[in-house]
Amino acid sequence: MFTDLYEIREEVGKGAFSVVKKCVSRKTKQEFAVKIITTSKLTKRDFEKLEREARVCQKLRHKNIVRLHETFDQGGCHYMLFDLITGGELFEDIVTREYYSEREASRCIQQILEAVQFCHKNDVVHRDLKPENLLLDSKRPNAAIKLADFGLAIESQGNKAEHFGFAGTPGYLSPEVIKKEKYNKPVDLWAVGVILYILLVGYPPFWEEDAKAMYEIIKEGKYSYPSPEWDTVSREVKQLIDSMLQVDPSKRITAVEALRHPWICNREKVANAVH
Ligand code: ADP
Ligand code: MG
Predict the structure, then answer these.
(1) Which residues contact 45 (CB under 8 A, 6 or more apart)?
(2) How far is the C-alpha of 3 from the C-alpha of 48, rounded, in Å?
(3) How far is the C-alpha of 45 from the C-alpha of 220, rounded, in Å?
């Protein structure tokens, strides 16, 4: 039983469906994070989703992806035991720092792209990329990024677009998901484009109070680079954002291509603007 093996400590995070707490192995005293989901009200479908989340996480071993060790079911709760990540969410870091320099943003996006590329290579589409699901390995500057929360991830062999259903977080949804069209891996690159835009200026490319109105501007790919804050931002990164926020998913840049973009792989020369 989980609680025989681990002592549960303070809360370290919260999601829409779960609470995440620190825990300590009673035997080795090693610290972990445990994602706890109450299962008493769950349907059979919900259980299948939990199984899928565990299956997906377990096959993804990568330096930029949070590692799942084990899962337990005990007394109306489902426990997922992960490595404890202590630097908090990228979201909180953006809020405290307001925005990143191009060099920092390039380093950050490169790690996110490495994680996404690894997911896609393993036939996993994350579907919920956003700063709340990207964790910092420590509080140190330049801490490694770890992708978390595979709760909405799907398994999809190949690149053929299919009807996987409406899922994600409003501001990060791609036009094809909003239009209820078939989709696949490109949805993740759209979300990376939104994250990159936010990193550079601290506000999102698409924003409306009303979700319906926001979906309209997303569907049209209507965003801009307002003056003065974008004036000093490099041409190269705007070009990279444009290739991610490309409305037609078949023309959108892939993770492998984005990793070869000069703003990512030739950072010292290209992503140098202080901004
Ligand atoms: P949900 O599926 O409910 O959104 P998440 O997996 O995103 O749950 O976890 C919720 C929050 O808990 C995250 O946004 C993060 O702040 C925190 N968290 C998740 N996993 C870990 C971990 N391994 N170490 C530390 N904090 C974590
Ligand atoms: Mg989450």
Answers:
(1) none
(2) 24
(3) 34
How far apart, in whole angstroms, are the C-alpha atoms of residue 68 and residue 32? 10
Question: Residue type at 230?
Answer: W
Q: What is the ipTM of this complex?
A: 0.98
Specify the residue for token string 């984005």.
258
CA 77 from chain centre, in angstroms, equals 25
137-168 pLDDT tens trace? 999 888 999 999 999 999 999 899 999 999 99
Per the listing, tokens 């690159």 go with: 189
- Taking a 5 Å cut-off on Cβ, the residues next to ion ligand 2 are 15, 133, 149
pTM, to two decimals: 0.96
Number of H helices, E strands in the chain: 11, 9
Are 188 and 116 in contact, with CB atoms under 8 Å apart? yes
Q: Residue 148: CB within 6 Å of ligand 1? A: yes
**Cβ pair 241, 262 in contact under 8 A:** no
